[in-house]
Amino acid sequence: MGVGGDGGPIDGGGPLAEPVVTSYGTVWVPRVDKGLLCWLAKDARLVSCPVSVPEGHRGKLTVVADRPAFVDTTTDSVHPLGSAGLGEGVPMGVDVPTEVEVAPRDVDGRVAVLDPQAKRLVLVDAKPLTRSGRPEQPLIVPLAGGDYEGPASTGDAVALLDRSSNTVETYGGDGRQIARQQLPGEPADREQPLITGEDGRVYADGKRGDHVLVVDHDGKVADVDLTGANGDGERTAKDRTADRNVDRAPSRRPDRTDRERPRRQQEQPSASDRSVDDRPEGNVLPDPKPATPPGAPRDVSASPGNASAVVSWSPPRSTGGGAITGYRITWAGGSRTVSADATSARITGLTNGRSYVFTVAARNAAGLGTKANSRAVTPRAVPTVDVVSARQTGDREVTLTVRVDGGGDPNVTCRVTWQRNSAGRTMLCNAASNGGTATRQLVIGNLPPGSYTFYASGENRAGRGPRGRGATVQVIGPKLVLTKGEPTDEYCGDLPGCAWMHIEFTGFEPGSSVHLDPYSSDPDYDNPGATIVIDEDGTASTDRFAYAGTGHTVWVVATLPDGTKVKSNEMVW
């Protein structure tokens, strides 16, 4: 195994597959004849193989959040590596064939898997390897028909090479294509056409060695002419401009031999001279010492609550070469330290109405890392809503008077519930413009007759408040009651027993006009009826329709504005 530098090659003890490297210089490589995963620390000369791959399983190595991981294509899962062997796997959420290509490092927490058979790029969520939570669904990127190779990762983007069109394509961690650029001439003829340099960028060079496409960290691609405009090897102004466009790409491309598959040594050293321990048991993988404090946490945000806020973040891209040991959260008036696996924290004891900015920093053995801030948020109290009164104001309609205290927030949504059948409705009941107390009228319709107790609760940006005081009302449907009224001699002539029909109205729409028609069992009785206007309380009372048909059955019918008919009781005159 060639490791570069002045140390010369190191015997891996057997045939090896593609290695991966962490930022702190540890090399991990599969030993294919024994089913072992081996590692070599920076500047070390002894290869240790502490991890055994389960018998019959296939897969590839990668690096996630600067930690080694094994992509098991037999079980479609991703496992962290350590001195105890394979850690608990994270399901990939997609079925992939055993023969796929895996990027040597993650892309914003996702492992890039190239499935050449299905012509697709799969981005598998591996963030749960380094923090708590369930994995998100994998992102599937369909690829146009071509001969794809790769993938290679800059950490923020993944690059593929389509040999059929000599084109480099790059994609972000969200699966969206960033760039697509053709390489002049044919790609270099080697097993790994895409090489990741020490600067973290990806290089694809031409077969003649006169052009190189440089994939920057953000996935953008630049074409660099290595020969000069006149072809005589002299650098031109155009070349120097190209250099600036790729942020001073190194003049020396990564050595091709650094990425070639190592070959088995011609001569095996004796047992006393061997520099590899291929026994999976008894090897202890030491934690590398952190070189620097970690980078800034990502995606820091805060959500306000009642005298509180929930602060959330994602782990930093760089751990500084050492394991994260915790996070420190600071704000005006306080601070708090949480564990290394935390990605959120609830901060209490804040002052409602006061603005807060929260700062989060990761810590490792080297110290506290770069800080990152949330946007300013303002905690608020949850609202309180009381139902002061409830009265029937129409046919199956009740009007509630509610008192709303917004807790400092003028935007309050009320939810009204009633006890009769546990039903409920959500409606807007804003507080005063300053977030204080206001009285509002809420109308509830389509209520069958019966007794109701109404309650309400409110929700604002701080959350939902408790249920407030309630009020009870009896809902009465439209009802007509017919009785025999005062005697009269109008319209009856000399007929005996003449009297008015007395009609009582309750539960009708206030102010509405209804048409009232009298009826009798006498087939010869006919009356055009009359129009009655209902009072503001939904009631009315009238003496109409003089009648003298002793022994007849009589009743009245009211026709509402919508055509609904309400019949009274029947009585014998």
From TrEMBL:
Entry's transmembrane regions: none
Disordered: annotated span: 168-203, 223-322
Biased segments, Basic and acidic residues type: 187-203, 232-266
Classification via Gene3D superfamilies: Immunoglobulins
GO biological process annotation, one example: polysaccharide catabolic process
Stretches with biased composition (Pro residues): 287-296
Pfam family, one: fn3
Biased amino acid composition, Polar residues: 303-317
Key words, A-Z: Carbohydrate metabolism, Glycosidase, Hydrolase, Polysaccharide degradation, Repeat
GO molecular function: hydrolase activity, acting on glycosyl bonds
InterPro entries per record: FN3_dom, FN3_sf, Ig-like_fold, Striated_Muscle_Regulatory
Domain Fibronectin type-III: 293-384
Name of protein: Fibronectin type-III domain-containing protein
The species this protein was found in: Thermocrispum agreste
Lineage: Bacteria, Bacillati, Actinomycetota, Actinomycetes, Pseudonocardiales
